[in-house]
Amino acid sequence: MPTQTQPRTPSRTAFLGYGSCALAGTFWGTGFFFGKIALTQLSVGHMVFYRFFFACLGLLPMLRPVRLSRNDWLLLLLASFLGIPLQFLIQFYGLSLTTVSHAALMVGTMPVILACGATIFTHERLDWKGWLALAGSTAGVTLITLSGTRHPQGAHGPSFVGDILIVISLIIALGWVLLNRHLMHTNSPTTITVYGTLAGTVMLALWIIPMDGPPPIDGLSAKVWIACAAGGLLCTSASTFLWNWGIHHVPASRAGVFLNIEPALGSILGVEVLGDKLGPAAWVGGALILAAAIVLTTTGHIDTEMILE
Asked: How far, rounded to the nearest angstrom, does the alpha carbon of residue 302 sit from its chain's CA centroid?
């Protein structure tokens, strides 16, 4: 006699939600690595365009007809504009004005920005253990990004303007996260991910092609094409879907700790590419991030009521 499928328990759903956010953070962590390869032959605008072009190809199999309200369409378009052309162009332009280590350090501030935003714009209340975990996780990212002795990276060093632009792009990303979370109260994560990415890519093309011209096709190496495809399929479509699904099932402020995987992994890949060695501070930083993730996802209590409803 066939057995009935058991419904998911709240604890299992939360575990899968946190796991999705962690995997998304891991994929995002490879974005700078693949982006650096692509930038050897592409401009910033064309690199970002190809990243989202491949992301759209990965999401097309999930495209289904939907019926969204007029208000939801407006919010979706706003979130798409914030999360794709505005955030990515500002972020990578800032990266061109500063160093990789400084950019990675700035990205490490995102969990705190997300937790503060969730507290200000929603009724999410993080207890003292949660705030301590976020502080410890961010400190861990700082230790990792500053522990490696990097070789000179050309004539351009860190700059105040570049660092500030990275932070501005992260604040913009906060709007994208909160708007998507609100939209997923009445729409599936798949719908928001697919239509949001497609809409944002169209907006990106409408800016890039008139400003930088059509993206080049001939003369690009296989290595660059692979980097663009990986950046789109893994770092964008897969990671965005996993993140949206995750924060649909767990509080956004708690999920924020997994964003620290991105600068941590990005720093590690950078160190390996540049031939630098990880010192004791980097191991301490990794332990802080792991401990913060465990504390934030297994202890404390948080009440959630979206005021954007």
From this structure: 23
Output 104 or 301, whichever has higher pLDDT: 104
C-alpha pair distances (Å), 7 with each of 3, 13, 108: 12, 10, 37
Tell me what percent of the residues of the chain surpass a pLDDT of 70: 73
Q: Which residue has the higher pLDDT, 275 or 264?
A: 264
pTM listed for this prediction? 0.74
Res. 205: pLDDT tops 90 = yes
- Say how far residue 306 (Cα) sits from the centre of its chain: 22
- Burial, 193: exposed, middle or buried (Cβ in 10 Å; 0-12, 13-18, 19+)? buried
186 Cα distance to chain centroid? 23
Q: Where are the domains of the chain?
A: 14-149+156-298
Residues 93-112, mean pLDDT to the nearest whole number: 71
| Mean of the per-residue pLDDT values of the chain | 77
Task: Decide: 148 and 282 in contact? Cβ < 8 Å.
Answer: yes
Angstrom distance (rounded) from CA 75 to CA 184: 11
Half-sphere exposure of 226 (CA within 13 A, CB side): 5
Q: Does residue 26 contact residue 257 with C-beta atoms inside 8 Å?
A: no
- Which of 59, 45, 291, 270 lies closest to 146 in space, CA to CA? 270
